[in-house]
Amino acid sequence: EYVNLNEFFNYILDRFDMMLKTDNEQAGKDNNQSLPAHATHKQYSIRREITKRDLWVEIDQDKFMQVIDNIMNNAIKYSPDGGVISARLLETHNHVILSISDQGLGIPRQDINKVFDRFYRVDKARSRQQGGTGLGLAISKEVIEVLGGRIWVDSQEGKGSTFYISLPYQPLDEDGGDWDEA
Ligand code: ATP
Ligand code: MG
User: Fold this and answer.
1) Distance (Å, rounded) from C-alpha 76 to C-alpha 97?
2) Where in the cell does this protein reside (predicted)?
3) What residue ranges line ligand 1, CB within 6 angstroms?
4) Mutation test of ligand 1: which of 66, 72, 78, 130 has the most ligand atoms closer than 8 Å to its C-beta?
């Protein structure tokens, strides 16, 4: 279906801001078992640089949300407490580009091409205590490639990581109609 990526990306991120609130409200009480693992005892803030333009793209909403959720959860999981996550969305002449940056552990150079492989996790010891299977990014890659898009990462160990997604995008004509060419 066609989805306004601008609105949808904001909606996905709103859920992460809400989870943070829920976590803060739960702090002090001892019954936060119902919360997702990443939302417990981890502080973060999200900075948004998101175009105000409507960007209609053809995606499967559920699958796309799963991809962004995984990248966001990774950004939280592999960052120290209080990390800043930057979420960006912009358009080029025929693509939309979305990125999520963290100031976390980063990915060592020799692992950077492997993080999209099934079950691959950097440093088993480091990852084990975080929970997870190492499938999130492999699934993300499949979902994005089915849409004709690309996913990649830029990272520096000890500094942080930026995950990028680009999707083909055909802007509507100025007059809003794309049927009058024939
Ligand atoms: P799952 O997503 O299945 O719960 P996972 O998070 O370990 O488990 P992926 O999301 O596929 O699996 O990520 C693969 C590995 O890439 C992670 O185990 C981690 O080592 C590394 N990684 C992913 N995102 C980041 C990040 N933002 N910063 C540092 N390392 C990362
Ligand atoms: Mg993951």
Assistant:
1) 21
2) Cell membrane
3) 70, 74-75, 78, 102, 104-107, 115, 120-122, 127, 132-138, 161
4) 78
Tens place of pLDDT for every residue, the chain, 182 residues? Answer: 899 999 999 999 999 999 887 776 766 555 555 555 555 578 999 999 999 999 999 999 999 999 999 999 999 999 999 999 999 999 998 999 999 999 999 999 999 999 999 988 887 656 666 778 889 999 999 999 999 999 999 999 999 999 999 999 988 765 555 565 55
Provide ipTM, 2 decimals.
0.98
Stretch (H or E) spanning 90:
strand 83-91
Cα gap 70→35, rounded to integer Å: 16
Which of 87, 84, 80, 164 is closest to 130 using CA atoms? 80
User: How remote is the CA of residue 134 from the centroid of ligand 1, in Å?
Assistant: 6
Report d(CA 179, CA 58) in Å as an integer.
17
Q: Which ligand is nearest to the CA of 75?
A: 1
Ligand 2 centroid distance, CA of 134 (Å): 6
